[in-house]
């Protein structure tokens, strides 16, 4: 599963399901996509509705076929790069409009570290002299810390145990991403959205508790002497919307944004709700994404 966390589409502790990134006719490329197959990637994300069901995949593929018609072939075409014949991990060129494969689709509950950012962003995170093994150990330490935080959250008596249903509210193509916006079928904010909101609040509390504990006590795992810690300055990202990202831009599309948006509004948006049925959410999963 690949996840490029959609920070610019989220608002923290906001339950109105309104993304910051509005429908747009000018698009901003994501530098992350240019290095998707060439640089090390690392992400830790708590997701819902993943892996997607076969029923959802079939509906999503029909949706994608309509989205592709909003762009020209040159903007969505994938082409193999020239690589050695014995290369098992053959990179591909990223199209201007990168549409997420169905198996990557999910609803983000919280992001501990997004794939589109370097793990060592702070000069204090790592020393230039740190070898690769040390860096890998520090990422493994962070993964274990995130796992512990999620376990602590799920073990609380107030962690929601009931399942709930989502349906598409609307879809949009903004400056930086295309997203599906979801709403709850069973009870609106009073129940459905409240469940995700409670999960996110609990995660925030447990994350902060762990950081405070980690600042004064060095925790050690039961299986090794590797410390389990949160690097200084790292924060959990809590979305304020219920969404799934389906589109990113690696480059500015050749087709003018006005045409893309007009086609999307006339041939996709009116049919989005009938394309997707309800999605039942009965569990959340901590996904660790890593590519050396």
Distance between the termini: 15 Å
* Main sheet overview: 5 strands, antiparallel
Structural class: alpha+beta
Q: Determine the number of helices (DSSP H or I, runs of at least 4 residues).
A: 7
Q: How would you sum up this structure, described in words?
A:
The chain is an alpha+beta fold and 292 residues long. The protein is built from 7 helices and 10 strands. The chain has helices at 31-34, 54-68, 73-76, 132-154, 192-216, 257-267, 272-275, and strands at 41-48, 97-99, 107-113, 164-173, 177-184, 219-220, 227-228, 243-249, 279-281, 284-291. The strands form 3 sheets. Strands 2-8-5-4-9 form a 5-stranded antiparallel β-sheet, sandwiched between helices. A 3-stranded antiparallel β-sheet has the order 3-1-10. A two-stranded antiparallel sheet has the order 6-7. Helix 4 packs across helix 5 (192-216). The longest helix is centred in the last third of the chain and has 25 residues, at 192-216. The relative contact order is 0.27. Mean pLDDT is 80; it is low at 1-15, 80-91, 188-192 and 216-226.
